[in-house]
């Protein structure tokens, strides 16, 4: 029997319809692995509950945080970077692989869960980040639920340095997994262009080629499409919100089969 590495993201299980979809998510073989590329839910107990159900079904579950996992409410005692550390601790305790763990290997390919955030560098030429944010016609909830608790561009820069060092030290073919796309091109499909500000960093642009990636997996945009950049496929694997409708040509298999081994 062959084993498959599956990938999903943006499960947003607070929607009942999505919870039903996740309840029905089963491996084809007990040896199958599952990547969950962020935005499981906003509350830590919901994230842990969802992933603990999946870790019982799949041989290995790999998670990276999305912006929704990082959302803080005013009443939360743990917020900002501490919130991420709490998530990592609780998920490790139930056996989920996080961006802080050794990279696992599936069929000779190293699967690299990354967490690199964004720094407002996906913006129109000639504008500073401040100007681009001031001009944006729309703002993501991140500005209310994450930005007051941590300096996001500074955290992004730290994450880029940490991740780059780990990738440099990892030999052989890889699959890179990040909630936000590693390249700007997928954001060109956004209906509301200003949202790109919250979608990634230009600092990761050459990573797929430089670090020998067979494929890059991402979520975040809720536009499940494939983007080829410099010969590497960047595949968005989001489930998204139940009310979102995508043109039929963008429909991709879900969960997305990243690779299969015998
Ligand atoms: Fe999402």
TrEMBL record:
Listed InterPro entries:
Calcineurin-like_PHP (IPR004843), Metallo-depent_PP-like (IPR029052), Pantetheine_PDE (IPR052963)
Domain annotation Calcineurin-like phosphoesterase: ranges: 5-224
Write down a Pfam family by its short name: Metallophos
Note the superkingdom of the native organism: Bacteria
One MF annotation (Gene Ontology) recorded for this entry: hydrolase activity
Q: Please give the PANTHER family that the UniProt record associates with this protein.
A: [ACYL-CARRIER-PROTEIN] PHOSPHODIESTERASE PPTH, PTHR36492
Provide the protein name: Calcineurin-like phosphoesterase domain-containing protein
- Look up and give the organism this protein is from: Corynebacterium glutamicum (strain ATCC 13032 / DSM 20300 / JCM 1318 / BCRC 11384 / CCUG 27702 / LMG 3730 / NBRC 12168 / NCIMB 10025 / NRRL B-2784 / 534)
